[in-house]
């Protein structure tokens, strides 16, 4: 008998063995990670490490193309890469059985290294999911390949016609099926237990009763919301609010065990606060528009919510913090989250009288898990990456000279006030409308400065004043609309906003790196 027909059968079976071993590794790792830390699982750990090491332009590209699905795409990509490598290892193992199994162990080492070097790593136990998963997978691969390359042991009764062809078909089928079924069960059990572990956090959130604010947000003045179809609602619902973060698994923090530590340079009375401590204090409620520095001109990463929280300046003052203008030694406030993210804000901005807060509520609800439950920071006027720490657990007073937080280490600016911007919500780009009055409308923002004017230009015509909705506060965006007498043809609509004090939104087009995109938004539309 020649070897080629057997190879044709064995190669796919080797590949299948590799896939089964990879699947077993992930299932076992998932189950072990329940007892260690869900975030220490190999997919999350390797995914997180990839996110941290991805060059900023690639990350920006991913956000642009996949939006809030970027994490899903990343995890599917990692799974696909793992599957390809597992197939190769399985086929290699047909020839080099020990080397194939050892290859699986190398992946265990990579997964363990990723888990141990995550900023939120809780120590050597974080290596366990990857290590145990890899050992089980290596043993499984070694066993299955053995069935493919060795005859069944003498004496075993078998009617296998391939017997003597050099492999144990029955042993392989039984081993492979048992491995597949067991992995499915183990994986499902792991998923189920992970769900239970976050149950305490879910219950703690359900139990939150937000107190009434001592300083409520002023009622929205009439006229903040235009009735133009398609315009962004003045208040963005929690569901519709954009989400930008690096968390592959949304942290589920139990409010009952949550603590916030405040310490560092110039802190004369370090404090550790509980969630109850925060709720017992006087709460303020404010409408504040948050924007992401990764928002392209005309992009979706901006939203306005009614936040409820504790005034950050008061908490800092009680800890003995003085802003630099009052002689304090720290000019940077570094917030750290439970998942190891770091954000740096100017201490001056946190204490200069604006409504910077440790927020516990969003639009009348406890913070959604995706938006930072139980507590996040909000500082009006600053992009999210230098102000809006979600799942916050630590505030350290330091200096800009001494410490660069996460995004600053990755080419973004140390300080990033939000740039004056505007957006055309309607008409949609490349849409068609009938000649006559077409409503051009959208939002404009210049947080903590205020919007005074929005102008619209049709093609190369003169700038025309748009109608402005009533301003809620200088920290919120402002709607605008312009009834355009549209004539047939293809037209370019361009918009620019002017902030209080007269500075016009810059025409200069820049990308998002390092401190936010700028330029006038425009859309091309066809009028029939
Ligand atoms: N812990 C943590 N907080 C974070 C981030 C993050 O990745 N991790 N991203 C920041 C960025 S870049 C922005 S724009 C805002 C977005 O807040 P949102 O997701 O509630 O809209 O959160 C900020 N806070
Ligand atoms: Mo952001």
Automatic annotation (TrEMBL):
Superkingdom of origin organism: Bacteria
The keyword Iron is assigned to this record: no
Membrane-spanning ranges: 72-92, 99-116, 128-146, 172-193
Protein's name in the database: Molybdopterin-dependent oxidoreductase
SUPFAM superfamilies, sorted: E set domains, Oxidoreductase molybdopterin-binding domain
UniProt keyword annotation of Transmembrane present: yes
A Pfam family the protein falls into: Big_7
Keywords: Membrane, Transmembrane, Transmembrane helix
InterPro entries named among the record's database cross-references: Ig_E-set (IPR014756), OxRdtase_Mopterin-bd_dom (IPR000572), OxRdtase_Mopterin-bd_sf (IPR036374)
Domain annotation Oxidoreductase molybdopterin-binding: ranges: 249-401
């Amino acid at each position: 008998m020649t070897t080629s027909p057997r190879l044709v059968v064995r190669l796919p079976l080797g590949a299948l063995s590799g896939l089964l071993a990879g699947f077993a590794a992930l299932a076992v790792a998932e189950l072990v990670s329940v007892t260690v830390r869900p975030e220490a699982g190999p997919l999350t750990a390797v995914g997180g490490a990839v996110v941290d090491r991805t060059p900023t332009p690639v990350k920006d590209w991913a956000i642009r193309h996949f939006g809030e699905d970027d994490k899903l795409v990343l995890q599917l990509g990692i799974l696909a890469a793992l599957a390809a490598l597992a197939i190769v290892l399985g086929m290699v193992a047909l020839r080099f059985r020990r080397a194939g199994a050892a290859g699986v162990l190398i992946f265990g080492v990579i997964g363990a290294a990723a888990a141990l070097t995550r900023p939120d790593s809780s120590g050597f136990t974080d290596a366990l999911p990857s290590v145990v998963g890899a050992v089980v997978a290596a043993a499984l691969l070694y066993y299955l390949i053995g069935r493919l390359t060795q005859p069944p042991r003498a004496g075993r009764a078998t009617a296998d016609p391939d017997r003597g062809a050099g492999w144990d078909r029955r042993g392989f089928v039984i081993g492979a099926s048992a491995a597949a079924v067991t992995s499915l069960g183990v994986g499902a059990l792991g998923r189920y237990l992970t769900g239970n572990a976050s149950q305490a956090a879910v219950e703690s959130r359900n139990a939150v009763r937000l107190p009434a604010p001592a300083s409520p947000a002023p009622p929205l003045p009439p006229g903040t919301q235009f009735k133009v179809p398609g315009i962004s609602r003045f208040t963005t619902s929690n569901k519709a609010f954009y989400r930008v973060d690096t968390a592959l698994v949304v942290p589920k923090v139990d409010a009952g065990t949550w603590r916030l530590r405040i310490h560092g340079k110039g802190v004369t009375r370090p404090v550790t606060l509980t969630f109850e401590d925060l709720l017992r204090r006087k709460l303020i409620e404010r409408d504040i528009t948050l924007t992401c520095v990764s928002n392209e001109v005309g992009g979706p990463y901006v939203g306005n919510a009614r936040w409820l929280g504790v005034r950050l300046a008061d908490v800092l003052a009680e800890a003995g913090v003085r802003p630099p203008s009052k002689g304090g030694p720290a000019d940077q406030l570094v917030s750290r989250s439970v998942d190891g993210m770091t954000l740096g804000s100017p201490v001056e901005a946190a204490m200069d009288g604006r409504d910077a807060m440790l927020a516990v509520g969003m639009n009348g609800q406890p913070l959604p898990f995706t938006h930072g439950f139980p507590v996040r920071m909000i500082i009006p006027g600053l992009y999210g990456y230098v102000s809006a720490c979600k799942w916050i657990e630590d505030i350290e007073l330091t200096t800009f000279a001494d410490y660069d937080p996460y995004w600053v280490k990755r080419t973004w600016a140390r300080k990033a006030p939000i740039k004056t911007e505007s957006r055309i919500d309607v008409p949609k780009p490349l849409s068609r409308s009938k000649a006559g009055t077409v409503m051009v409308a959208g939002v404009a923002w210049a947080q903590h400065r205020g919007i005074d004017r929005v102008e619209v230009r049709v093609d190369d015509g003169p700038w025309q004043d748009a109608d402005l909705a009533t301003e809620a506060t200088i920290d919120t965006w402002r709607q605008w609309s312009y009834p355009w007498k549209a004539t047939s043809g293809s037209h370019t609509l361009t918009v620019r906003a002017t902030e209080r004090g007269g500075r016009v939104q810059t025409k200069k087009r820049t990308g998002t790196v390092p401190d936010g995109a700028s330029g006038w938004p425009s859309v091309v539309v066809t009028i029939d």
